[in-house]
Amino acid sequence: MRSLEVVDPGRYALVEDLGRPGYAHLGVAPSGALDVSSLRLANRLVGNPSAAAGIEVLLGGLSARLTASATVAVTGPAVDVRVDGRSFGSHAPVPVRAGQTVSVGTPSTGLRCYLAVSGGIVVEPVLGSRSRDVLSGIGPAPLKSGDVLLLGEPGIPAGADVVVPVAAPGELVVPVTPGPRDDWFDDPAGGLSAWWTVTAESNRVGLRLDGTPLRRAAEGELPSEGVVTGAIQVPPSGLPVVFLADHPTTGGYPVAAVVRARALGALAQARPGTRVRFRMS
Amino acid sequence: MRWRRCGEDAALLDCDSLEQMRAAHATVSAARPEGVVDLVPGARSLLVIGGVAATKALLDGADLTHPPADEPREVTLDVHYDGEDLALVASDAGISEDAVVSLHTEAVYTVAFTGFAPGFGYLTGLPAELRQPRLESPRTRVPAGSVGLAGEFTGVYPRESPGGWRLLGHTTATLFDPHADPPALFAPGDRVRFRSVR
Q1: Which residues of chain B have pLDDT under 70?
Q2: What is the Cβ-side half-sphere exposure of residue B28, based on CA atoms within 13 angstroms?
């Protein structure tokens, strides 16, 4: 069977697809690629269905050897892609012959690149998905040197598709919908529209922000309730956490607003130090 | 009861009580309106992901005082009552350790909601004497299968994790196995009993 052998996982590389929605009532997060549109694009470039699993590579450094010829594509922030040392661009289909090694460089902006391989990665699905959920430990373990990942049957690559990668900006204005618990805060729209800074404690569970703490309008304790991806949860410190794909499924702190789905990809690429403000819409 | 917006394709139904939430959950579960991806119960709320308009229409006309009579699944767990906090729970309740075990095993619990970890259920129905606060300083490591209590809830740790609940004992049952069907032993609405074994 066609396969890919991990030569070097780089800093942190995970198998991700579109996740496993529908199990939050059992305490299982949706998980899946944080920058969904980048994974979809990578899959399209190599002729895969959009739900095929690829590799989410944090800050580059991954190299992998193909045991059979394949088409690969790397998306996310613009990054150098090499095949046996020869340089190719990201955001384009790249043909790879059996035995050759594809390497993903380090992006100069953003955080997460997506490597799709024709046929997709076909590790055993768990609850309908091949995604690694870092909070609950479900799905394939973080990749390590020597891992062999089986590949599915290839489709027909999209061909000469020209896609211009977008640099991850240092400042983001993020559209949100108010609530469900905006009434727990003094001027939540005003507070969230101030500039916040992404901290280094951020991960696939959530983006932790620093800034001027949001003020509670009322004291009290919130009975635990279900939360969604993109929820801006505010613990007693007043410093918000934006829940990403591997978020806890219920929580006891009020959610002031929810990030619109189309803006989640940009947050997935926000390096520590990125400045973020939220606009209610 | 009040609907609250929760992003673009979800809504949170604030309920007046846990019973009302259960009735709403049973009503929506039975009808499963088109587009509903998940129904996530909370302690006083129901999160509806997908199919919000259809769910609102359904619940607007529903008689929640007479929800669909679902047959709850019953789960009995064998527990070794040898927990590190059994003596503490007994002394705070002013009763013997045997009396704690009797109280904990005679009650019938309901899985109110889940969270914290896959397969972790918050079980309501705890006798008043056993409603005790969390430990002042949580343990960094609670073994899988530990049976504990905190506030109005009792529950079982599905896997090793940090935790601040008072531990009564342990079970060898598997609470969560992603390859099993169903993957979780506890789902919201299930009835749970504990049986003391030695």
Answers
A1: none
A2: 28
Distance (Å, whole) CA B52 – CA B11:
6
Q: Which two tokens stand for residue A275?
A: 């400045």
DSSP-derived 3-state class of residue A262: helix
Nearest to A26 among B46, B118, B179 (CB): B118
- Note the pTM of the prediction, 2 decimals: 0.94
User: A127: which chain B residues are within 8 Å (Cβ-Cβ)?
Assistant: 178, 183
Residue of chain B nearest A262, judged by CA positions: B8
Q: Is A224 on the interface with B (CB under 8 A)?
A: yes
CA distance A45 to A118: 9
Query: Is some CB atom of chain A closer than 8 A to the CB atom of B88?
Result: no
Six-digit token string for A132? 């690694």
Q: What is the DSSP string of A46-102?
A: HT--TT-BEEEEETS--EEEESS-EEEEEESS---EEETTEEE-SSS-EEE-TT-EE
Side-by-side strand order, sheet with B166-170:
B74-79, B191-196, B109-115, B117-124, B153-156, B146-150, B166-170
| Contact B67/A at CB under 8 A | no
The sheet that has A63-66: what strands, in order across it?
Answer: A86-88, A81-83, A101-104, A63-66, A3-8, A148-150
Whether residue A169 has a cis bond before it, omega within 30° of 0 = no
Q: Kindly provide the ipTM of the predicted complex, given to two decimals.
A: 0.95
Q: Is residue A158 less than 8 Å (CB to CB) from chain B? A: no
Q: How far is B183 from chain A (nearest CA, A)?
A: 8
On whether the CB atoms of residues A56 and A34 are closer than 8 A, the answer is yes
Q: What is the pLDDT of residues A187-214, one digit of tens each?
A: 999 999 999 999 999 999 999 999 999 9
Angle between helices B97-106 and B86-93 (to 10 degrees): 90
Residue whose C-alpha is closest to residue B124's, from B15, B22, B7:
B22
A37 CB-near residues (< 8 Å, 6+ apart): A265
Nearest residue in chain A measured CA to CA from B151: A223
Beta bridge partners of A243: A206
Residue in chain A closest to B184 (alpha carbons) equals A26
Instruction: Give residue A224's Cα distance to chain centre.
Output: 26
**Cβ neighbours around A160 below 10 Å, total:** 7
pLDDT in tens, B73-116: 999 999 999 999 999 999 999 999 999 999 999 999 999 999 88
C-alpha–C-alpha distance, residues A13 and A185, integer Å: 38
Interior/surface letters B75-110, b for 16+ CB within 10 angstroms, e for the rest: bebebebebebbeebbeebeeebeebbebbeebebb
Quick: pLDDT tens for A49-62.
Answer: 999 999 999 999 99
What the block records as the tokens of A208 is 């932790």
Whole-number pLDDT of residue B72:
85
